[in-house]
């Protein structure tokens, strides 16, 4: 919303605020006390409402729901238009507004558009002369972004954010004015409205008349399933920055691109018994982080330390929270050239909790610490304005010059360009669009090109390769080149000293320090062919994000229609047609008809076998799905099997259930739910263990079990539920298990599979007290697929990358039957593509099953050793999951 729209809404806001105003009718005073910084000696503008005057309670007394937080922010924007502008930049999946607050001095507020234009010019040093850059550096304020509560239950940040806004909008003191004169502050007051709302409401339901029970065992401190940390779909939005699966993240990154801050601080919470963390972070630090931005950590650490020392508050640096994975809230700004930082405050859980040292940590305490750190950050940014703006500009320039010179040796030390052919079932188009959404410049070849010395990013050896016209080219010599390289390079190299320390820690029995995955290159996750070159590639800039789509409505097919498998669009079309009661067939063998060739696994719609509305349905659904559909005038093929053959089998319309509820892995559930809702666009029904025990499976054809430990699934289902699942599968149901849930499928007591976990994968199966083998911390590995399996329909590559992220490994049964081992890890010598491996990791997983299926009675079980839906990042694996859902009962 613009400031103008806020003025238009003012009467409505007045009505909305009546209840809160009656609860706290005293007017704001010039000497009002700041709830999070009492006795700060600051004079506040009485025209600007205090948080208490709108909320009805002091900041920190309770968790503020979204509607009240939004009301307060709106009231401040209306009361202080000379300093504050409020924008609605998006809406969550649950319809809540995603807000952005821009605060500046009265002078800078009047020239805000001019400042933003200057900030955008500073993003691209290729367009600036030395004089232009010097002038910009002299006049541009430091742009500072503060983000609060990206995890729903890390809620002290949202309270602190309101406190920061009040001080910035109402403070009349010299310190506030100095900050406003030298900075433009972007506040993201609540990064995860949906998750935070679950937390606020859950705590409110459990809160007694005496407040929050402080005993750590109280249920108020453990949220209801699936927990409030994640988004509507239970995603961790702090790992969604470059993926942008959610509207909240897309709005956030759009703000970054529109303003390109010089400083960014993301305020989080950590364990209750900790203190406060701010950077520098622990090792490892990704080598693409710009040195000048990294050096900036020390200036902000000094400012934060001074603020905390003045209060006698404890804090620490470096011991935890590495900066290796590029998808965090501090990583994205860092790779763009800003000083990006994560702050972590010990959590007050349900609002007040007793810690192991006997002290009580309250929400007010936690919010006060975050407020102090945020304010110290603004002070440091203002005091070092010239350095911040200069360092940002220099980091953007060095991204270009480093790439031209060959960069700072990670992986391919002389990588200059990445080339991605377009004809890859739409995945290359989607990858290019994702890069552009992150501000990365994408180009296209305008003629067929031969790359003389190209290195494939995940399969094959270096050599000459021909790429067709329209291939995407990412030249790393660009202002956003550090981010481009971090997302595209085949290997992010860990510092050798860190690796040495990890081996020593393992020798002494300590846990590893890997905070997230160690491989994420987009060519792996999208399963696309891509090549790296040592020099630039002739190409032109793409100005409009590409979109893979069909060619409009197909012509009328007198015999019917056919469409190829393997793309997200084809899966969406298949699901939509089935939901529309259109009968669809699956052709297991390749065929050619009417001059068109279709790969094995193509889908067929026969006009005569459907009602007269089939033509309109196919046309409409194909356009909606963006799928390419070919009309057919005959079933007589020129090669392959005729379309009326008995081998061409009908696809059942699956009624899909997902196991949900207490004990079930919430994140994995959310990833699968998102895949159905947003990618496949196919309805599902969540059911809990009690419903399974009660016989609800009789109304479904497919049950998806999210990643959950075997022991937890035994507790969720109990003996009765397990027996119901067994009976249902044998009667024709399709059971799909994801990641750790496959370990439950692989137990003898489950009685549904001959698959077994290696005896050293679980302590219960090995020698009592024997150490478990070390986990693989998110490495990219190579699997080999059975090209004849319907589960790999549309997967054109014999081998493809997946994520290895854990310690559980499965063994191939001695009596394996044809078609059961759908995909297995490559032999030990070839299995690792990228990421960290322990010395024995390759030998443990080499040759082990990754995707397994077997017939059980009239039904089928399908087990994934990993989670194909993880974070919506491994999009190249979505066809495998979709095939399991739609085709599990066809073979």
UniProtKB/TrEMBL annotation:
Keywords: Signal. InterPro entries: Class_I_gatase-like, Peptidase_M14, TAT_signal. SMART domains: Zn_pept (SM00631). Gene3D superfamilies: 3.40.50.880, Zn peptidases. It comes from the Bacteria. GO terms for molecular function: metallocarboxypeptidase activity; zinc ion binding. Residues 66-337 form the Peptidase M14 domain. The keyword Repressor does not apply. Residues 1-30 form the signal peptide. One of its GO terms (biological process) is proteolysis. This is Peptidase M14.
């Amino acid at each position: 919303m613009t400031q103008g729209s806020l003025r238009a809404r003012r009467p409505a806001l007045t009505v909305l605020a009546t209840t809160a105003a009656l609860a706290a009718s005293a007017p704001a005073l010039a000497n009002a006390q700041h709830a999070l910084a009492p006795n700060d000696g600051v004079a506040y503008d009485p025209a600007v409402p205090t948080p208490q005057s709108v909320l009805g309670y002091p900041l920190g007394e309770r968790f503020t729901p979204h509607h009240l937080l939004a009301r307060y922010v709106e009231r401040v924007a209306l009361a202080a238009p000379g300093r504050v502008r409020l924008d609605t930049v998006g809406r969550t999946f649950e319809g809540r507004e995603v807000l952005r607050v821009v605060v500046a001095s009265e002078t800078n507020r009047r020239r805000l558009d001019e400042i933003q234009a200057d900030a955008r010019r500073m993003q691209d040093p290729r367009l600036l002369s030395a004089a232009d850059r010097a002038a910009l550096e002299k006049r541009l304020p430091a742009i500072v972004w503060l983000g609060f509560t990206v995890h729903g239950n890390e809620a002290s940040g949202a309270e602190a954010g309101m406190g920061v806004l009040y001080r910035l909008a109402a403070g009349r003191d010299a310190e506030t004015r100095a900050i406003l004169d030298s900075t433009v502050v972007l506040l993201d007051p609540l990064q995860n409205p949906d998750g935070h709302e679950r937390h606020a409401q859950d705590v409110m339901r459990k809160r007694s008349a005496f407040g929050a029970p402080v005993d750590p065992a109280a249920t108020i401190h453990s949220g209801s399933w699936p927990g409030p940390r994640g988004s509507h779909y239970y995603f961790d939005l702090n790992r969604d920055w470059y993926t942008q699966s959610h509207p909240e993240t897309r709005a956030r990154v759009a703000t970054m691109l529109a303003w390109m801050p010089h400083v960014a601080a993301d305020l989080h919470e950590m364990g209750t018994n900790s203190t406060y963390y701010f950077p520098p972070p622990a090792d490892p630090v990704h080598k693409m982080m710009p040195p000048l931005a990294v050096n900036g950590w020390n200036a902000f650490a000094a400012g934060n330390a001074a603020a905390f020392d003045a209060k006698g508050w404890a804090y620490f640096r470096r011991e935890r929270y590495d900066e290796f994975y590029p998808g965090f809230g501090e990583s994205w700004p860092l790779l763009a050239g800003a000083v990006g930082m994560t702050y972590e405050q010990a959590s007050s859980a349900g609002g007040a909790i007793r810690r192991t040292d006997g002290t009580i940590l309250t929400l007010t305490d936690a919010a006060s610490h975050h407020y102090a750190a945020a304010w110290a950050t603004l002070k440091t940014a203002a005091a070092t304005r010239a350095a911040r703006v200069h360092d940002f500009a220099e980091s953007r320039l060095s991204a270009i010059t480093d790439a031209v010179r060959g960069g700072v040796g990670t992986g391919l030390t002389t990588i200059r360009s990445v080339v991605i052919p377009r004809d890859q079932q739409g995945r290359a188009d989607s990858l290019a669009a994702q890069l552009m959404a992150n501000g990365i410049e994408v180009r296209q070849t305008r003629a067929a090109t031969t790359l003389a010395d190209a290195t494939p990013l995940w399969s094959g050896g270096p050599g000459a390769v021909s790429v067709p016209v329209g291939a995407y080219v990412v030249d790393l010599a660009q202002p956003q080149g550090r981010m481009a390289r971090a997302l595209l390079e085949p290997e992010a190299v860990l510092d050798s000293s860190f690796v040495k320390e990890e081996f020593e820690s393992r020798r002494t029995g300590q846990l590893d320090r890997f905070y997230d995955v160690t491989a994420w290159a987009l060519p792996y996750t999208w399963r696309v062919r891509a090549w790296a070159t040592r020099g630039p590639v002739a190409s032109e800039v793409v100005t409009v994000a590409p979109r893979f789509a069909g060619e409009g409505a197909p012509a009328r097919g007198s015999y019917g229609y056919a469409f190829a498998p393997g793309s997200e669009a084809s899966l969406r079309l298949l699901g939509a047609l089935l939901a529309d009661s259109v009968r669809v067939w699956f052709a297991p063998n390749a065929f050619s008809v009417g001059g068109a060739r279709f790969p094995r696994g193509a889908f067929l719609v026969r006009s005569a076998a459907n009602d007269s509305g089939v033509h309109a349905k196919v046309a409409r659904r194909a356009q909606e799905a963006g799928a390419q559909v070919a009309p057919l005038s005959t079933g007589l093929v020129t090669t392959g099997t005729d379309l009326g053959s008995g081998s061409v089998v009908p696809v059942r319309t699956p009624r899909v259930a997902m196991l949900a509820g207490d004990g079930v892995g919430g994140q994995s559930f959310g990833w699968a739910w998102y895949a159905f809702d947003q990618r496949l666009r196919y309805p599902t029904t969540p059911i809990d263990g009690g419903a399974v025990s009660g016989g609800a499976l009789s109304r479904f054809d497919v049950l998806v079990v999210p990643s959950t430990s075997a022991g937890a699934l035994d507790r969720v289902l109990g003996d009765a539920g397990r027996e119901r699942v067994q009976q249902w599968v044998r009667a024709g149901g399709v059971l799909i298990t994801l990641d750790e849930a496959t370990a439950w499928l692989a137990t003898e007591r489950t009685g549904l599979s001959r698959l077994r976990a290696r005896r050293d994968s679980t302590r219960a199966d090995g020698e009592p007290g024997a150490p478990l083998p070390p986990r693989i911390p998110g490495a990219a590995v190579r699997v080999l697929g059975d090209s004849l399996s319907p589960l790999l329909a549309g997967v054109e590559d014999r081998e493809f990358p997946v994520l290895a992220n854990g310690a559980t490994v499965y063994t191939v049964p001695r009596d394996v039957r044809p078609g059961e081992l759908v995909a297995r890890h490559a032999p030990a010598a070839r299995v690792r593509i990228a990421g960290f491996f322990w010395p024995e990791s390759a030998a443990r997983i080499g040759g082990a099953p990754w995707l397994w299926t077997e017939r059980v009675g009239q039904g089928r079980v399908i087990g994934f050793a990993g989670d194909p839906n993880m974070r919506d990042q491994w999009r190249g694996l979505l066809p495998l999951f979709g095939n399991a859902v739609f085709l599990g009962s066809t073979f």
